[in-house]
Design goal:
Blueprint (H helix, E strand, L loop, with lengths): L6 E11 L26 H11 L6 E5 L10 H17 L3 E5 L5 H8 L4 E3 L22 H13 L4 E7 L5 H18 L2 E8 L18 H11 L5 E3 L8 H10 L3 E5 L14 H8 L4 E5 L13 H13 L14
Parallel strand pairs: 1-2, 1-8, 1-9, 2-3, 3-4, 4-5, 5-6, 6-7
Helix pairs in contact: 1-2, 4-5, 5-6, 6-7
Function: Catalyzes the radical-mediated synthesis of 7,8-didemethyl-8-hydroxy-5-deazariboflavin (FO) from 5-amino-5-(4-hydroxybenzyl)-6-(D-ribitylimino)-5,6-dihydrouracil.
Protein name: 7,8-didemethyl-8-hydroxy-5-deazariboflavin synthase
Catalytic activity: 5-amino-5-(4-hydroxybenzyl)-6-(D-ribitylimino)-5,6-dihydrouracil + S-adenosyl-L-methionine = 7,8-didemethyl-8-hydroxy-5-deazariboflavin + 5'-deoxyadenosine + L-methionine + NH4(+) + H(+)
Length: 333
Amino acid sequence: MSAATSRQITYSPAYTIVPTYECFNRCAYCNFRTDPGKSPWLTLSDAEILLKSLQNTGICEILILSGEVHPHSPLRKAWFDRIFDLCKLALSLGFLPHTNVGPLSFAEMAQLKTVNVSMGLMLEQLTPILLNTVHKNAPSKLPKLRLEQLELAGELKIPFTTGLLLGIGESSADWWESLEAIATIHQRWGNIQEVILQPHSPGSQQTWQFPAFDTHLLPEIITKAKEILPTEITIQIPPNLVQQPELLLACLDAGARDLGGIGPKDEVNPNYPHPHYQKLTEILRPANWELTPRLPVYPKYDDWLFEGLQIIVKQWRNTIQSVDFNSDSSVIL
């Protein structure tokens, strides 16, 4: 396909590592968590074996995704240290860490900045009504606390991904309010790389009995989001949760330009496997969309990174376009 006729849709070749599924929150729609003390923490030795098996497969992003330990728990420091050490290990083996582990203190975020090229936290929704329903037993889902994370990331110059979870009891007016809050923070700090629009998709572990979000509303929401958000923020949609090819294409036509981190398993939505790279290509190519790999940090933010991180990022920028993602040896998609 010629450059003149193709249009680029990006994704990050990624693998998710989970330090622990234990979480003190009990979000009613969650398909990820286990109760504290009910699952072992990932050891550094096991992580090293796993990460070494992923070398030379085309994977660039290691997403560190964890259940949350209460800020005042005696295990908080051990939990944070494990996350930091996993990031450091991933870096030492040539990967680019991106951490999403819930709200963090300023000091914790500052420390993680030294071993991450970007970080993230879903805003989900700002409306306080959810604190009486799906977030009733989720103390870290306070809207003020999550907005503060976006502000802290801006103050610390951390490239950041956030997003909305759609269909958990909010109204359409709540979508626009949440997007406007993200836009305001970005206008102040310029730190928001991407906004994910994630439709609630029921899973086998959740306790909340509520239907899936109507994904046919996504193109309209994307169009409105484009009007609210600054133009440099990329809108991301998860292709495993938008499974109808014609709807996926409609979302791209409406302005979505990224498909997120794609790997063997979506840990947050384990009932919805990621589509294979080749399958996505078959959907996109007839409409002149070209699926293009990217790094978990956008080029405009490279100079926000510490020097050691910049060196690794530069090496990846020189090689990622030449990776053969159709190779049978690739484990990523």
